[in-house]
Amino acid sequence: MSHQPSHVSEHLAPPPAQAQEGLRWGVIIGVGLGWALLFFVSIFITVKVLHAREKTLQPNGPDPLPRQIGQGEIGIVDQVPFEVYRTRENYQKERTARLEHWGWIDRKAGAVHMPIADAMELVVKEHQK
User: How far are the Cα atoms of 11, 21, 22, 38, 45 from residue 31, in angstroms, in the given order?
Assistant: First the structure.
C-alpha cells in the first residue's frame, strides 16, 4: 500500500501571525548603510595613518626619480653569463697548476710545495727503503 498525502490543506491561507510577517526593509537597508559607513570611516583612518607614517619615514618627501627612467636599459648589468662556473674553472686551474709545479708556501720558514707526482715518487722511495 502506498500513502497518498492529503490535498485538503493546499488552498488554505496562512495563519494570521504568519501572514503579517514580512521583511523589514528599513532595518536591512539601515544595517547595510551602517556597515558601509563603518567601512569608509576605517579606510579614511587607515589612509591618514599611512600618510602620517610616510611623513615620519620620509620627512623631505619622496626620493627623486632616477635619471634612467625613460631609457631603454634600466638596471641592466652587462656581465658574462655563468660567471660562477668560470670562477670554479679558474680555481680548479690554479689548484691543478699548484699540484704540478714547484712554489713557495712560506719563504721565511723555507717551506716549499712540490709537484704531486714528485711527492708520490719520494714517498714510494722512502717506503721501499
Answer: 37, 19, 17, 11, 21
Contact, 114 vs 101, CB < 8 A? no
Give 12-36 pLDDT, tens digit per residue: 777 777 666 677 889 999 999 999 9
Residue type present at position 115: P
- List strand residue ranges (DSSP E) for 9-122, in order: 103-106, 111-113
pTM above threshold 0.70: no
Residues 6 or more apart in contact with residue 13 via CB below 8 angstroms: 19
**21-to-9, 24, 29, 30 alpha-carbon distances in Å:** 20, 9, 18, 19
